[in-house]
Design a protein that fits this description.
The chain is an all-alpha fold. It contains 17 helices and no strands. The protein has one domain. It is 77% helix and 0% strand. The protein is globular, with a radius of gyration of 22 Å. The N and C termini lie close together (5 Å).
Length: 469
């Protein structure tokens, strides 16, 4: 792995703040160590460092993703149309905007991680405010997509009744959109300083309250999908405001109040943010494209519903690996900030190996439970049978997806977002989607092919591995 120049202002000295990371020597090359020493001094140390960050983040992400899953579960028992409509809203319109804002926020992960590793903790608050401002403007730009969701979905070929109901849910979810302008920057700010425990506790409390609000609004107040949207908005703002309160109240070294400096060098920050957004959006929007393609199939309500159930299961595993993604991003950016290329390299090797093992375990669980996991989401026997037919493909995908987010985390930590964006375009959109369209529609192979498009995560992983050496 090549040594990468940290993306920090050259006029800032590490001595301008207290050292954020205890100074350690870089690892010795593997060839100069015995196997036992390597396990003790490298593998075990990297495992502990990884999971101290990844464990709480993954748990918090699972809880946060659980808001979408719980929403689908509660709505799914209202009927197949309601399940498919809310699924299309969450998977297409909301995911489109979520992916873009997540990508824009990931620039903060690069800059805060390297600043923290280099001891420039005072810069974190400036970067945080700059990111919040940029994301707020981005939310305003994305707002028409929410407002015109129903006609957009119809233009994409979705069933008219399904599109109308999905558009209604999306309109009601507009408040949630603006919560992300606070949520993503504050989350990245805390992750870069390894203050992930508070993120986890906030997410756990929010998930419990979300379940209560769904039950209250959908069943007790009989608001239907309107109640689901209200609960969705409340939960999003609860998480965002709780994280912001912690940053301003308990992170005094990184947060030193509002500053006009946040509005300096906006364009360079936007450039890095856009590169991050393109890289992550091309991954997340790929999932969205699969749902859109599925909506064109015969019996679209069942096809979209069964695919969405599988994507929700896949999403639970993916949240674990996105937690690892965030952790390896912090590890790589911190070590590069300290000038430790060997430590950055070995942290990648250890993380990839452990991720693959976890993926194999998840595959086994899906195969064992293939006839049962759909019961959680729906009472419809037709939907349950359709979902079980996708279980084998889902199981294979669990393995293929286990390593890909890790490599994305390395790219973010090293500031290599633009290169990965080009790789994503080729693997997903030049090769994957056109092939899926031909097999799904011209060869009439249906939703199995649409879900099988997820296999192309493996293609991208192989390409990325070659570029990382």
């Amino acid at each position: 792995m090549e040594t990468t120049t940290p993306l920090l202002p050259s006029n800032e000295s590490p001595s301008s703040s207290l050292a954020a990371v205890p100074e350690e020597e870089d690892y010795l090359p593997a060839a100069s160590q015995t196997f036992r020493d390597f396990i003790k001094n490298v593998f075990w140390r990297e495992t502990v460092k990884l999971w101290k960050i990844a464990g709480p983040i993954a748990l918090s992400l699972i809880c946060q993703n659980g808001t979408n899953i719980l929403t689908s579960i509660f709505v799914g028992h209202l009927g197949n149309l309601q399940l498919s409509a809310v699924s299309v809203s969450l998977s297409v319109i909301i995911t489109f905007c979520f992916g873009f804002l997540l990508g824009m926020g990931s620039a903060l992960e690069t800059l805060c991680g390297q600043a923290f590793g280099a001891g420039q903790v005072h810069m974190l608050g400036i970067y945080l405010q700059r990111s919040c401002f940029i994301l707020l403007v981005t939310c305003v730009i994305l707002l028409p997509i929410y407002i015109f969701a129903a006609p957009l979905l119809k233009a994409l070929g979705q069933d008219a009744e399904l599109a109308a109901l999905a558009g209604k849910f999306t309109l009601l979810a507009i408040p949630n959109l603006f919560s992300w302008a606070i949520y993503f920057p504050t989350q990245k700010f805390l992750q870069a300083q390894r203050k992930v425990g508070v993120i986890t506790w906030i997410a756990i409390v929010a998930l419990i309250l979300h379940a209560f609000w769904l039950w209250l609004f959908i069943y007790e107040f009989d608001w239907g999908i309107t109640g689901a949207a209200v609960a969705f908005d409340l939960t999003g703002w609860l998480i965002a405001l709780a994280q912001a309160a912690y940053v301003m109240g308990w992170c005094k070294e990184g947060w030193r109040g509002f500053s006009w400096s946040a509005f300096k060098d906006i364009w360079s920050f936007v450039t890095l943010s856009l590169a991050s957004a393109v890289m992550l959006c091309l991954e997340i929007w790929y999932m969205m494209s699969i749902v859109v393609l599925t909506g064109h199939l015969d019996n679209a309500v069942i096809a979209v519903g069964s695919l969405t159930i599988c994507l929700n299961i896949n999403g639970l595993e993916l949240m674990l690996f996105i937690g690892i993604n965030a952790a390896i991003s912090v590890r790589v950016s911190n070590e590069l900030g300290l000038g430790h290329p060997e430590a950055a390299k070995y942290s990648v090797y250890v993380t990839v190996l452990q991720s693959l093992v976890i993926g194999l375990v998840c595959m086994a669980v899906v195969l064992v439970a293939k006839d049962y996991f759909a019961y959680i989401f729906t009472s419809s026997k037709v939907m349950q049978v359709a979902t079980s037919k996708l279980a084998f493909i889902l199981a294979i995908t669990m393995v293929l997806n286990s390593v890909q987010p890790v490599i994305s985390g390395v790219a973010i930590g090293g500031g290599w977002q633009a290169l990965v964006a080009y790789i994503n375009i080729g693997c997903y959109y030049v090769f994957g989607l056109p092939l899926g369209f031909l097999l799904g529609y011209k060869a009439n192979l249906g939703v199995e092919v649409c879900f099988n498009l997820l296999y192309f995560f493996l293609t991208k992983y192989k390409v990325r591995m070659r570029t990382s050496h």
